[in-house]
Amino acid sequence: MSAADQTNAGRQATAALGAKEAATPAKVPAIELKGISKAFGTVQANKDIAIRVMPGAIHGIIGENGAGKSTLMSILYGFYKADKGEIWIKGKRTQIPDSQAAISAGIGMVFQHFKLVQNFTVLENIILGAEEGALLRPSLAKARKELKRLADEYELNVDPDEKIEELSVGHQQRVEILKALYRQADILILDEPTGVLTPDEADHLFRILDFLRKEGKTIILITHKLREIMEITDTVSVMRRGEMTATVKTSETSPEQLAELMVGRKVLLNVTKTKANPGDTVLEIEDLRVRDEDKVERLKGINLTIRAGEILGIAGVAGNGQSELLEVLGGFANGTGTIRVNGQDLDLTGKHSDGQSRRARGIAHVPEDRHHLGLILDFMAWENMIFGYHSDPAYQKNPLLMDNAGIIAHTASAMERFDVRPPIPTLPAKSFSGGNQQKIVLAREIERDPVLLLVGQPTRGVDIGAIEFIHKRIVELRDQGAAILLVSVELDEIFALSDRIAVMFDGQIMGERLPEDTNEKELGLMMAGVAT
Amino acid sequence: MDFATIIELLDSAVRLGTPLLLACLAGLFSERAGIFDIGLEGKMLMAAFFSAAVAAVTGSAWLGLLAGIGGAMSLTLVHGLASITFRGNQLISGVAVNFLASGFTVLIAQSWFQQGGRTPQLSGNARFEPITLPGADAVKDVPVIGQIYDNLLSGHTILVYVAFAMVPLTWWVLFRTRFGLRLRAVGENPESVDTAGVSVIRLRYTAVAITGVLSGLAGTYLATGLAAGFVKEMTAGRGYIALAALIFAKWRPVPALGATMLFGLLEAISNRYPNIDLGVVNLPIQFMQAVPYILTVVILAGFIGKAIPPRAGGQPYVKER
Amino acid sequence: EPAIIYDLGGKFDKSFNEAAFHGAKRWADETGGKYKELEMQSEAQREQALRKLAESGANPIVMTGFAFGDTLNQVAPDYPDTKFAIIDMVVDQPNVESVVFKEEQGSYLVGLMAGMASKTGTVGFVGGMDIPLIRKFACGYVQGVKAANPDAKVIQNMTGTTPAAWNDPVKGGEIAKAQISQGADVIYAAAGGTGIGVLQAAADGNILSIGVDSNQNYLHPGKVLTSMLKRVDTAVYNIFKEGTDIKPGIKVMGLGDDGVGVALDDNNKALVTPEMLKAVDQAKADIISGKVQVHDYMSDDSCPVK
Amino acid sequence: MEKTPKWIDVGLIPLLNLLIAFVISGIVVLLIGENPVQAIKVMIDGALGSPYGWGYTLFYATNFIFTGLAVAVAYHASQFNIGGEGQATLGGLGVALVCLAFPWPHWSIALLAAMIGGALFGAAWAAIPAYLQAKRGSHIVITTIMFNFIGASLLNYMLVNVLRPRGSMDPATARFPKSTYLPTFHDMPLIGQFFGKSVPANISFFIAVLACFLVWGLIWRTRLGYAIRAFGRSESAARYAGISPVKIVMAAMLISGALAGLMAINNVMGTGHRLVLNSVEGAGFIGIAVALMGRNHPFGVFLAALLFGFLYQGGGELALETTIPRELITVIQALVILFTGAFDNMLRAPIESFFVARANAKKEA
Ligand SMILES: Nc1ncnc2c1ncn2[C@@H]1O[C@H](COP(=O)(O)OP(=O)(O)OP(=O)(O)O)[C@@H](O)[C@H]1O
Ligand SMILES: Nc1ncnc2c1ncn2[C@@H]1O[C@H](COP(=O)(O)OP(=O)(O)OP(=O)(O)O)[C@@H](O)[C@H]1O
Ligand SMILES: [Mg+2]
Ligand SMILES: [Mg+2]
Q1: I want to staple B259 with a disulfide (CB 3.0 to 4.6 A). Which of B114, B137, B178, B245 is the partner?
Q2: What stretches pass through the bilayer (chain D) (predicted)?
Q3: Is the dihedral of CA B241, B242, B243, B248 positive or negative?
Q4: Phi, psi at C127, each rounded to 5°
Q5: Mind spelling out the 3-state secondary structure of chain C?
Q6: Rounded to the nearest whole angstrom, what is the distance from the C-alpha of residue D1 to the centroid of ligand 2?
Q7: Which domain holds residue D110?
Q8: Residues of C with CB below 8 A from D156's CB?
Q9: Chain A residues near any Cβ of chain D (below 8 Å)
Q10: Dist. CA C161–CA C214, nearest whole Å
Q11: Predicted confidence (pLDDT) per residue in B223-279, tens digit
Q12: Are A246 and A176 contained in the same domain?
């Protein structure tokens, strides 16, 4: 009896169970976790977590970045090993030392970062680890048939012979779901599945989830988006800093309550700012186009202007060209078209299209990803404080040597001003928490009085106190007359900060709105590419 | 150049290309599984020594073969421990393996045989003798075909035929079996294998074990087939040429055959014609010797089709930072 | 305490260096004396090795191989109280004895035998590193072959251009195989350790081979026609025996003083016909008497025959 | 985040790894039927027991400082330069060409010119792999390996066909003019009286020490060093900052190649006084071990180079005084690379988790 057969039997058993139990109120939880703890080095990712998930339900898990959601699910799926705790599946204490055990127990997982082999076909990815025998041919034939059935049943169409690298992100996700279904999973975990999807694709996904729920499958859905939680889940658990703060019925809660549970206090998303007082045009972008390494066009003719003393917010689902826009402006991607700053053209290719030249033109950049772009985690705070500006004459002792002592002193005072804790310039960047790391980047970029500030996801993974602080500094800079381009996937943040909002979809600007004249619904449609 | 000379050159190319082919396929299994292996040279050398030593003592080439595989395997274990279990730097481990073999073989050879790091000469059953294919004598005088059959195809040691058989076998295992699918997957994205419920560690150890067997065959052929005994540093860079061939073949088995035979032919030509006068230029022997390396650099530079290694190659599989 | 340094081929190359080792060993066995010995690992170590021995008080110090020439020329003046001897090279220093051999004479004799033993009329020569010294072997050999059979063809190959050419049996074997396929049925290997591969390939290919420096007939009994003896062993033995009394200057060893010769023993008894023996003895006498002049390649860097 | 104390990272762990390497080497010596205690005694005596021994130990150490620095500089830019061997080989060619080109009036002038020659040739040999890595993404480890072999062939050709004096049988250049001979320790004031005439350690040693200081300054005190380190730690962040990957890879590799090439002033110009085949004798590879041991810090490189200088000289004595072949040092060298490099996590992981556990416990308390 193969592993697949076993789970098949298991599936039928639980399906029957689920059907019977639907009538009786005293159900055995599909999943019960008790006292799960997990540390990565000194980071306590999960602390004594308990959770129960009922069969045939969609159970949501929310929490800020780094709250420990993915870690918890990876433990359930046998990808990580818990330091402590018990896992009970369908009322039975179950050891899950590896993913094989999880699969046997009927668990399937779609990871936040897909686990697909890029240069394999869909079919090969599906059968990997679930082959029928030592030879591939029968497995492939069987999988092809099964795939067709699943595709028809769940509207999950993908070409079985296409290579993964040729597929869109949405289709790759379908492959991941198919993988789980092919393995007869009756407990399906989805880790932030909609982060990479357009609202349309997300709707499709939810239809499928609904369908699976009706079939009696259990679904765990991790998301940041309260709207989705309210829309589809039956119950919801909230995590904060590695702990499970609450589990509630969705029908008995509200987004406000969830938000409060998530961050630990009342959320204040309104920034107090005066009306903008725009001056001369600072940034003009005309017909900007960018191709990536695979020659795919990622920006398809962008036109934008920003004036001094104005914040332009770019809304959009991640992956629609916002990153490329920041990269071209920041000088680390090549493009074609025209970009003018204060009337002067920027080079879009060649050796004057780098970060150094941009900084020389008064363009500062708080990048989207502070770990990979904005900071060198192994460098000390003072070394990070001059990152990108290290050739500035102010930091040189003489033509040969840098003025390290001077830089350390400068860093210490900047850390005070930006309330970086602890204010120790010789600590490596990786020893600071996310919010404090972001403040270091911000201090470096803002204190240079830029003509144009590029900001990407300024408060991603940052706690609420720091968010307020960061927002305040951005508005202050605007009031001093800088032009600011803000990219954020958080619509709340876009509404709170922007003086004008542009929506990006598929490498194009779908349209511009004033925040006071629009609402989330309209922007959502534009972000999906269905409205302009 | 007459036909007989061409046959003779090709024959020599087969002999000289065989250790490269075996080592190249050895490297293929390891690197396809995501473990870079610049230690092929060392594994071959170790196998060459142990096969020759045991064959010399026991008088049996087959026992020598076992010992050769064992010798290569011991270094494979070191490399596997370093790159799989301890998640160390695979390149550094490869360098260490090469030095280890280079020193260890001489040290042990001197201690066992007191012949300045050689083994005694092998003769008789202690060597793999050439095999005459059936009917080779009969067709010997048939023009062209007969000559090819008798001179080129027949008359090699068993290990040569094994090496050639390994090419389709490797292809089949890699692309037609479950093991091959998983092996390729673990070299591209180990997480995909792990989350599919398959042990990354076991797969990778299996892959490097196959590398051990094949590089063991390579070294054994060198010492007991091509030569008749071990002398120090007798691999003379062949492990690196095999590595070059692997890149040249873009990690695929059938092109690996082509690449290694090409490099074998280059060696055969430079043995026979130290200086090649092309009229315009006179290619010195040193140039001929450098050609495999130069070709590899050209391939690496991507001027003739780009060589893209397995995506997870060289990186230890680390789940938790 | 005398000392000896072997060249890169190593003490056990079954050939040149091994001959030197046998000389030293014979001296030790006979006198019960002790000596120091050193094997070179790389070109760059020569000077250290030499100085090391000189510093340690060894005297005399023998080195095998022309490659020591330049280094010795530098080092010898620094140790005026130490006596040095070098084989195969002339070093003009007041405390150095240089021993050279008339290899062309011995090679002539084995060439003569090869010419007579060959049935195909084609014989081969595999040299080690391509240097005048080895060409001297080749030239003597060709002269001998032609003396036996003026129509004979001699295929000549050198193994390489660096000292690695002395120690590459695989390559030696491949070259021999190529010569066999070209019709050679006797191959003379003057290539140090590389020659082992040549002799092996010849034995595998069922043809005859000729060894060099040491008596290599025993390597493949019945398959090695003979060996061109170059009495490095005698040279070393003599130097060790004379000790610090060795005479600086050049010492030439040829047929006349048994410095070179051909090896005859049980292993090749069946191969050497009485006619061959006669011809060899005759040629030997003629060379010693001066009736036959064997051309020395190194005298004018050219060979009159091909 | 708590971290393991620095002395553990750069002191204790490397020392423990070294200890393991030596213990295993001792076992190997036992296995071949020799006495390890005797062996280590011979090595210490031969390498450190006399000015003669020191003269050789420091001579070898000089080579290893240069190649160790070469590996370290490249490493800071996250480039694994395994081509030190080839670069040093070509450096030798550069030095030889300079020395032979001109009847230099004084060694000091010749030395300056030879340093330029060696550095230029070494850098040139690193330039192509560096360019291919930077521009075309060709894996630098493989290209530098290939360039080691190509370099060996090139030198072989030059020595056999071009530079060999007429009538000479050696594949070697002619003797350099006497005026290019560098002062050895014997020729120097103050220390000269301790060292014999035959000691090869020469003024290059002091240049190597100077190079340590310069590399330290370069890496931790200059803009270029800052950019190299930034690039080495995070390529993506370096691009964000406008640090050109091409420029950094080229700069780091050229400096690395130049350092490897500079080694030739010691082994070619300082002693030998002519260029022979394989004058590098594996020093390029030992540079890897030296940089690993020295944690890529010039001071660490200096100490590790001394250690390997000791091993080299001691190993040579071993071959002379005992029946243990010189290859023992190759084994020791391999084990050092293995344990300080590839097996580093073997000790580091448990030791670090011990400190993490302690830190967590402290936090709880
Ligand atoms: N493999 C790992 N090694 C070390 N630390 C990790 C690892 N994975 C997660 N962490 C840390 O554990 C904590 C929880 O991370 P986790 O990915 O579970 O958060 P999350 O709630 O899924 O966040 P997000 O919403 O950003 O996905 C974070 O501090 C993170 O840095
Ligand atoms: N992947 C990681 N590797 C190493 N250390 C990490 C990692 N992720 C987080 N840390 C460290 O763990 C600690 C907690 O990190 P985390 O990002 O969860 O902070 P936080 O409490 O959420 O703070 P903030 O709200 O400012 O983001 C910090 O010291 C951080 O530097
Ligand atoms: Mg997550
Ligand atoms: Mg955080």
Answers
A1: B245
A2: 12-33, 53-75, 87-104, 110-128, 140-160, 199-219, 240-263, 275-292, 299-316, 328-347
A3: positive
A4: -95, 165
A5: CCEEEECCCCCCCCCHHHHHHHHHHHHHHHHCCCCEEEECCCHHHHHHHHHHHHHCCCCCEEEECHHHHHHHHHHHHHCCCCCEEEECCCCCCCCEEEEEECHHHHHHHHHHHHHHHCCCCEEEEEEEECCHHHHHHHHHHHHHHHHHCCCCEEEEEEEECCHHHHCCHHHHHHHHHHHHHCCCCEEEEECCCHHHHHHHHHHHCCCEEEEEECCCHHHCCCCEEEEEEECHHHHHHHHHHHHHHCCCEEEEECCCCCCEEECCCHHHCCCCCHHHHHHHHHHHHHHHHCCCCCCCHHHHCCCCCC
A6: 8
A7: 61-308
A8: 161-162
A9: 39, 41-43, 330-332, 351, 354-359, 365, 367, 372-379, 383, 387-388, 390-391, 396, 400-402, 404, 430-431
A10: 23
A11: 999 999 999 889 988 999 999 899 889 999 999 999 999 999 988 888 887 766 667
A12: no
3-class state of residue A245 by DSSP: strand
> What CATH number corresponds to the domain at position D104?
1.10.3470
Residues A435 and A336 in one domain: yes
Mutate which of A38, A43, A469 for ligand 2? The one with the most ligand atoms within 8 Å of its CB, which is A43
pTM: 0.88
Whether B240 and chain D come into contact, CB under 8 Å, resolves to yes
Structural domain span for residue B92: 3-239
Q: How confident is the model at residue A267 (pLDDT cuts 50, 70, 90)?
A: low
Of A111, A117, A134, nearest to B185 by CB-CB distance is A117
Mutate to test the pocket of ligand 2, among A65, A69, A371, A433 (most ligand atoms within 8 A of CB): A433
Final residue belonging to a domain, choices A129, A161, A183? A183
Token digits of residue D180: 């290019």
Protein residue whose Cα sits closest to atom 30 of ligand 2: A433
Least confident window among A63-67, A485-489, B125-129, B232-236: A63-67
Task: Note whether residue B10 is domain-resident.
Answer: yes
Which has more pLDDT, D174 or A263?
D174
A252 and A380 assigned to the same domain: no
Residue of chain C minimizing CA distance to B222: C170
Question: What is the chain D residue with the closest CA to C47?
Answer: D272
Considering the domain boundaries, does residue A275 fall inside one? Answer: no
Q: CB–CB of B243/B26 below 8 Å?
A: no
Cross-chain residue pair C219–B268, CB shorter than 8 Å: no
* Domains: count for chain A: 3
Token output for A94: 């179950």
For residue A461, the CA-to-ligand 2 centroid distance in Å is: 10
Question: CATH number for the domain including A415?
Answer: 3.40.50.300
Is residue B274 within 8 angstroms of chain D, CB to CB?
no
Neighbors of chain D by Cβ distance (3+ pairs < 8 Å) = A, B, C
Note the pLDDT of residue A24: 47
A to B contact (≥3 Cβ pairs closer than 8 Å): yes
Number of domain units in chain B:
1
| Residue B161: CB atoms within 10 Å | 14
Instruction: Say whether pLDDT at D217 is over 90.
Output: yes
The ligand with the least distance to the CA atom of A467 is 2
Token pair 């996801």 in the structure block, residue: A457
**Residue D237: inside a domain:** yes
What pLDDT, in 10s, does the model give residues D111-167?
A: 999 999 999 999 999 999 999 999 888 889 889 989 999 999 999 999 988 998 887
D117 CA to chain B: closest CA distance, Å? 24
Using the mean position of ligand 1's atoms as its centre, give its distance from the Cα of residue A46 in Å: 9
D3 — pLDDT class (breaks 50, 70, 90): low
Structure tokens at A155: 């509207």
A363-366 vs A452-456, strand pairing mode: parallel
Name the minimum distance, in Å, from the CA of B220 to any CA of chain D.
22
Q: How far apart are CA A190 and CA A73, in angstroms?
A: 9
- The reply to whether ligand 2 has any atom less than 6 angstroms from the CB of B319 is no
